[in-house]
Amino acid sequence: MAKRALVVWGGWEGHEPENVARLFETILTAEGFEVRVSDTLDSFADYAELRKQSLIVPIWTMGKIEPRQCDPVLRAVAEDGVGLAGCHGGMCDAFREDTEWQFLTGGQWVAHPGGDGVRYTVRFCREETHPITDGLPDFEVRSEQYYLHVDPAVRVLAYTEFPHPEVPGPHEKNFCRMPQAWTKHWGAGRVFYCALGHRRTVLEEPAPRELMRRGFLWAAKEA
Questions:
Q1: How many domains does the chain have?
Q2: Alpha helix stretches (DSSP H) within 54-159
Q3: Which pTM value belongs to this model?
Q4: Predicted confidence (pLDDT) per residue in 145-157, tens digit
Q5: I want to staple 219 with a disulfide (CB 3.0 to 4.6 A). Which of 163, 180, 190, 197 is the partner?
Q6: How far is CA 53 from CA 12, 46, 97, 99, 177, in A?
Q7: How far is 23 from 56, CA to CA, in rounded Å?
Q8: What residues make up the domain containing 23?
Q9: Is the peptide bond between 152 and the residue preceding it cis, with omega within 30 degrees of 0?
């Protein structure tokens, strides 16, 4: 049976949701997925169709989701083992008013001190290996450096150090390792998130692209 993926894009245009959706479509197609790309949240409302998917990829920033759209996603992941994977605000700043979505995804964006164009390093956790990150080197990126509120139950795969020395603000005395990529389980399903992706060009770089590719494959329900 072929692997199937549903990519749903929309919301704030500043995150280039359609362009990112097409990039992810290309990545998934190359891995043998049958990919459906949709620009409506009503695609989430059809539970019978959702449960047939191997993977759901949301790319929807700062929107509002209705229970009839959110609940089938929660159920498909928890009960049917459908995977969920995404990035940046398209997954963890998707629906600020919906705490069930945040519970599912494992985090919520709260700030990006310095805005776009901050140069920072993404470091992989080396304490134990994981198939998503095994062999990948730390890398530098120029983009938004996401600060998130994160579910303590996630498994952190990569982090960045806060505060950035060139970005002053009320956060600057609060040194921490901020998770930038993680996995978690939601019932029978797997969830993967990566904080990178303010623009498509960030995700086209070799390291972020490979991170997303591996994350998709890890999260996807086996056919």
A1: 1
A2: 67-80, 88-92, 99-105
A3: 0.98
A4: 999 999 999 999 9
A5: 190
A6: 25, 11, 26, 24, 34
A7: 15
A8: 3-219
A9: no
